[in-house]
Amino acid sequence: MPQPRFFDENLNRSFPFVTNTDAELPHDIIVDCGFTMGLYSNVDPSNEVRLKSIELASSIRTFTFVCSKYEGIPLKFHVGLGDKFATIYSDSDLETSCRPPIWSGYIIVADPAKITSNLNFVERPLVEPALIHNLSGSYINDFNLANHDRTRAKAPAVTGSIDEDNPCGPYAIPDVNLVRARCVQGNIWLKEGYNCQITQNANNNSITIAARRGYGEGEPLAEVPLDNHELADIPVDEHGCPIQPLSGGPWCKDTLRSINGLGGPILNLMAGPGVSVTADPDLSKHKIVVNVNMLGLVKCFDDMVTS
């Protein structure tokens, strides 16, 4: 195939490697290369790409490159004897159906037949930094959609035990994120739902999704299920209408769902030095008393203001 003048010039110089780093590699082997650091590579300008080795196997020449951040994830290019001045591509082995590869690249070899023995470089040839395209964190590749579980009348099961020395654990509640979809890619439209506002700012290249009462689809006329199965556990009347909220408990006016914006599925009220938490003796009032009584404090200060 025809050889661009650019390749002809590279036959007699260090490019695409940094001068004086390729003493063990003849100039007329690799005439061009380029590498792309993927979206999730987390590399920075200090990371380098070097040629580690060239291995022979019958009619195939394998060129192995390594990145200083990912020594254990090499990039291998398999070049046949007939691939003179051909562009050979390769991706790292960690590509998934959702995420792009950690890194990828291409090389162009002038004449693979000139390589007659294995080469394991002591001083690995350093690729010109300008030939490395860094896409780390540069764009959004996919969306994951999930809902946080609502406050439930019946607390989820816990593991472990609660003791006086460590009243907050060790115990754990199950995962309360209800995943609706993973790895959503392609053309994505964002639509305002109930009490929702979406704004786009071209100056800082951002999209903001915010809760705004009455915006988007407005106020919902009924509770919005978190998933298609939530309604299955709720009893209905003869008209098919739920006779209790999706939380499984009383209606909104009859239950405590959050305190200062903190919600379930488990909400703990804990006493501490100078503060007591007690239930009203009259259980019919369904009342909890938080009393800042200063009892149990180690030391009281003269300027402490009480009310």
How are the secondary structure elements laid out?
Blueprint: H1 5-10, E1 30-37, E2 49-57, E3 60-67, E4 70-80, E5 87-91, E6 103-109, E7 119-120, E8 132-134, E9 143-148, E10 159-160, E11 171-172, E12 177-184, E13 194-201, E14 206-216, E15 275-279, E16 288-292
Parallel strand pairs: 1-8
Antiparallel strand pairs: 1-6, 2-3, 2-7, 3-4, 5-6, 9-12, 10-11, 13-14, 15-16
Describe the protein in words:
The chain has 307 residues and is an all-beta fold. It has two domains: 130 residues, no CATH class; 126 residues, no CATH class. It is 2% helix and 33% strand. A four-stranded mixed sheet has the order 5-6-1-8. The longest helix is centred in the first third of the chain and has 6 residues. The N and C termini lie far apart (91 Å). 13% of the residues are buried.
